């Protein structure tokens, strides 16, 4: 069973070094996240898997890395400056902001008041300036130096269409792939890393013949679109997403972006909020390349509802040697989010199971301690309520009430709820500065580690750490020596972790929790016959493997060879 809630994933990510809130020491900054040591590994693996399947394994693709900041003119002619906006409404009662197109009725989703402002358009692009500018917004000087952080990587590819085609002597059909940061000043970011203001995209612009040049044996734009939809759908499945949680959804006419003839979204069934887009595959026609071109026939400008572009010095057309004619290619665009993909892969891989039933002797004292924590918290709440000046209160009564209610409910579900209690004590605002709660935390954590197995069943290609190496005895020099030698031998090829900080059982548990596919244990038998125990994460099966065969075997099973 995959994750039941986004909260489970958020907790794991913080606890084990995948994702931390950005600017945390200053109270955080709305929906910006930092990717920790394991997070950056996983992001890199997602990107590598995508690059391998879309660039290396095809013969019709090239790569690109274009600048994040481009001339403002790019975004004027792409249509983003005028239209890349969301309709925004404010609730006059509770003063929260919402996207009008996400509301299902004329009622505030936060407080239920039917008192919303009229929708206003809000442009999602972040602005900056090139060079030292002190002019007021909207003045000629300000506009001349204004730039935008790119809200999609696509435009960088369009700007380089001719560079890539000429320098690599490519013939249409061919595509260009790019991975990079994108920025959107989202009105309602949230659901952890699902919707953030800074994120990463993996985009392809695949250039094809316009319909009037398609001959027998060529694929039409609709066929290319279908082919990319199924190619991309299969990529998600090949990395472990269950087909019951991935669907293709064709956008209806009202949803379509101004440039698109058709778009199909790939949606993943997330816990808490349900189906959410992880990738969009659009048929962008010849809109973008025409929009940036100087010489476009009047009839095409009218068809595409474009103004003549006299800022551009270029015409993004292509001479087709077979047709002996020039045309502006059409484009199919598969566009996926790296960070959103990470959330989907984590949700899919998360599994929690009780592997050992704790004894009453272990659980009963904890229950008693939980009762004591609840009583102490209620006392602190009453004390806080007596202080009329809220700024002088040591505790927030509402937070304490929420904390004790959650704790009491979870205590009733022990031992299944061990990990939830651990997370609650760690993170809940109402648990802060309560001494008995602080004392209880390590005890709960220890029992949770012994009894609950959290395992990330990540595809081996995506796992942040590939192999962990444990010495059975850390004070046995011969065993330690071999363990460190294996570590050094594997380190150039994969992320390995040498760990001797606990007993083997606990070390296995810690690696399962971060999705490490293999663990190697060096023991006394190793000293006799040069074999180690290789333990596989999902089956927990253990086999003896000769040290000399380790590298080759792991490279194969990790899809690295
Ligand atoms: P949405 O409807 O969710 O706002 P969109 O249709 O605007 O998304 P696209 O412009 O098609 O998204 O972007 C392509 C991909 O980039 C999306 O499928 C998603 O994976 C990712 N993406 C877009 N916006 C964000 C964001 N704010 N945070 C994280 N990823 C995003």
Overview of the structural elements:
This protein is of the alpha+beta class. It is built from 19 helices and 24 strands. Strands 3-10-11-17-14-13-12 form a 7-stranded mixed β-sheet. It has a 5-stranded mixed β-sheet with strand order 21-20-22-23-24, sandwiched between helices. Strand 13 (262-270) and strand 14 (274-285) form a beta hairpin. Helix 2 crosses helix 11 (338-349), helix 13 (397-411) runs antiparallel to helix 14 and helix 14 (418-427) packs antiparallel against helix 15 (435-451). The longest helix is centred in the middle third of the chain and has 27 residues, at 360-386. The protein is globular. The two termini are 30 Å apart. 35% of the residues are buried. The model has no long low-confidence stretch (mean pLDDT 94). The structure holds adenosine-5'-triphosphate. The site of adenosine-5'-triphosphate has 16 residues, from strand 11, strand 14, strand 17 and helix 11.
What low-confidence regions span 5 or more consecutive residues with pLDDT below 50? Answer: none
Alpha plus pi helix count: 19
Compute the separation of the termini in Å.
Answer: 30 Å
Largest sheet at a glance? 7 strands, mixed
Annotation, overall tally of beta strands: 24
Overall pLDDT, averaged?
94
Strand content: 15-25%
Shape: globular
Walk across the major sheet and give the strand order. Answer: 3-10-11-17-14-13-12
Ligand set: adenosine-5'-triphosphate
